[in-house]
Write a structure and sequence with these properties.
By secondary structure, the chain is an alpha/beta fold. It is 44% helix and 15% strand. The strands form two sheets. The chain has a six-stranded parallel beta sheet, sandwiched between helices.
């Protein structure tokens, strides 16, 4: 893609085939409380940071544990998967490597906390892929707002208009567009309910990275 200087990638569902982890984490979390995963729960928390999702879950479903205990429970179920089993989506890693070889700057912009993205990158020797990493822990708003994208562009030292963002959900695409960035929607099976809206909102849509690499 010509005319851009910064390439910003979401992690979960975009470059990492990881959203199955959250289905499993959700299933175990609610099963321990003799509950089924509430209808629409995944869609509701998709664009939230880890902290925001824990607050929402506690308040909405009357979970007695503290926010910290909820997050620790999620961590214990998720960290192992991110460390050992989560893989890059097809050709995603190769595409990012290609971008870097062209001397463009790259960033990981994720709602996930460092306790998850760090072992994922480390255990795959992939820390070198990104010049900048910005987590949802660093902002007070979710990805439907432009804040995290503007912070990422600032750290890359690139104007937002010169950045392209890869995201797998429409709400995040809208947040990136509010930041004045070009957006690429990336299909993910776990978010197929959102595909038509993602196609409509994103400037470009791809089913996978083999289409551009």
């Amino acid at each position: 893609m010509k005319g851009f200087e910064g390439f910003i990638f979401d992690l979960d569902g975009t470059v990492a085939d990881s959203l199955y982890v959250w289905k499993e984490v959700d299933r175990k979390f609610f099963k321990r409380r003799d509950m089924e995963v509430p209808k629409g729960y995944e869609e509701k928390i998709n664009a939230m940071s880890f902290e925001q999702a824990a607050i929402y879950t506690k308040e909405e479903f009357g979970i007695k544990e503290s926010i910290d205990k909820i997050k620790k429970e999620w961590f214990s179920d998720a960290v192992y998967e991110y460390s050992n089993n989560v893989k890059f989506k097809e050709k995603a890693k190769e595409y990012i490597e290609y971008i870097k070889k062209q001397n463009f700057k790259t960033a990981l912009c994720t709602a996930s906390p460092k306790e998850l993205y760090e072992p994922f990158l480390k255990n795959r020797n992939s820390q070198y892929l990104f010049d900048v990493i910005v987590s949802g822990q660093e902002v007070n708003k979710n990805k439907s707002f432009p804040d995290i994208y503007l912070m990422t562009a600032q750290r890359l030292n690139i104007p937002p208009s010169k950045c392209v963002v890869f995201e797998d959900i429409s709400s995040a695409v809208l947040g990136a567009k509010k930041a004045g960035m070009y957006t690429v929607g990336v299909f993910d099976e776990a978010n197929k309910f959102d595909t038509e809206k993602l196609k409509k909102e994103a400037d470009k849509f791809i089913f996978n990275f083999t289409e551009i690499y």
